[in-house]
Amino acid sequence: LVGLGNYTHPNTRHNVGMMVLDQIANKLDLTWTQNRTLKATISQTSLDIENKDKSRTRIDVTLLKPRLLMNVSGPSVSKAVREFSIDHSNIYVLHDDLQRPLGKVSMKSGGSANGHNGIKSVIQHLCSENFKRVRIGIGRPPDD
């Protein structure tokens, strides 16, 4: 899971991707560590997931908050994907979406960046659009 935002401006609406990751980490009682190689703050865990047939599957989860400005976060994401051998189909990027009303969440699998420069950077550095996006509505303020 990747949370996009501008780490230099915490608690602003454009940081909603990072804020959601913070909530997930808090809920799972995880701690964050700086990873200079990845230029990111990361947290990792394994989860036991119950399948429809009641069997269990163990999955490894990495939470990543790039320590780069949102519009150039692609290098951090691509380094993490290589470092942890993550298949592109298992990447979920959480990001702000001005086009959606505040609090409205939607999922998109692949496709264009829809004008989001952070997503453009991730696409460019992964050389692929084949990853999932969790678009979190922040709405447009009257002066945008």
TrEMBL record:
Domain of life: Eukaryota
Cited InterPro entries: Pept_tRNA_hydro, Pept_tRNA_hydro_CS, Pept_tRNA_hydro_sf
A GO MF term: tRNA binding
Keyword tRNA-binding: yes
Annotated signal peptide: none
Enzyme Commission number: 3.1.1.29
Keywords: Hydrolase, RNA-binding, tRNA-binding
Enzyme class per UniProt: hydrolase
tRNA-binding listed as a keyword: yes
PANTHER family: PEPTIDYL-TRNA HYDROLASE
Family to which this protein belongs: Belongs to the PTH family.
Full protein name: peptidyl-tRNA hydrolase
